[in-house]
Amino acid sequence: MSTKPTRAMLLAAGLGTRMRPLSNETPKPMLPLGGRALIDLALDRLADAGVRDVVVNTHFKADRLEAHLAARNETPRIHIHHEDELLETGGGVRAALSLLGDDPFFVVNGDSVWLDGPSPALGRMAQAWDDDIDVLLLFHRTYQVQAEVGLGDFVLDPLGAVRRPKELEIVPYLYAGLQILRPSFVATAEPGRFSMNMLWDRAIEAGRLRAIVHDGLWFHLSTPTDLADAEFALHGAVVGATT
Question: What contacts 22, CB < 8 A, 6 or more positions away?
């Protein structure tokens, strides 16, 4: 890809059920980590990557989330796409295509929190994009995650090709909540409710899905314990070891 994507979608419509009771009255993307809401951490990263416009889908406690976003004074520009009924990850992106333009765009989970390694993750993804693919995922190494993440999500070969695990196979990579999508590929799916996994499986079967591995820190944030652990780890990453 000659230029980085300038548009993105941030997925923020989910119910965050595993984060209860913290998410009983507060949308999960608004929960704080390191003094900032999770969604603001993601938006800040997108702004740093040169993204000018971000579509945010809303549903649960949408009024609170939309008021929070309206109060932001920082870039990027926010465009709200409200879902009266939850459309899941794939359906949510499909429904917002008219706001995302014709060029490949980032998709970031609303609870994705990462610290860059030697090079910014979003920049590495943009450099890895190719005209021969429709999906590019960011992976993280399963063994580096302290939270409960099961047996892993994917296998990745040296050329970046991806496959799903076989039955009971322990695999080395997890999806890290960041991807680039080609809008014309997303548009091949029928509108409605569906998981992003359906699109990924189609792209894998066609040989048009690739991935790169994150070389920094990444936080799996599913439960209140995960959030507390991330707070402790983030503090250590910022201030260093203490005695």
Answer: 28, 31, 224, 227
Which backbone phi and psi does 70 adopt, to 5 degrees?
-65, -25
In a domain, 119, yes or no: yes
Confidence at residue 71, expressed as pLDDT on a 0 to 100 scale: 94
The contacts of residue 163 (CB under 8 Å, 6+ apart) are 154, 155, 157, 204
Q: What is the CATH number of the domain that holds 196?
A: 3.90.550.10
The boundaries of the domain holding residue 235 are 7-239
Quote the pTM value: 0.91
C-alpha separations of 2 from 26, 111, 125, 181, 186 in Å:
39, 29, 12, 16, 21
The per-residue pLDDT for 73 is 87
- Residue 243: C-alpha distances to residues 10, 106, 210, 229, 234 (Å): 39, 40, 43, 19, 17
H or E, element range at 238: helix 224-239
Tokens of 242: 């203490």
- How far apart CA 26 and CA 22 sit, in angstroms, is 7
Joined tokens for residue 63: 């009024």
Report residue 2 CA to chain centroid gap: 22
The answer to whether residue 2 is domain-embedded is: no
Instruction: Report the domain count for the chain.
Output: 1
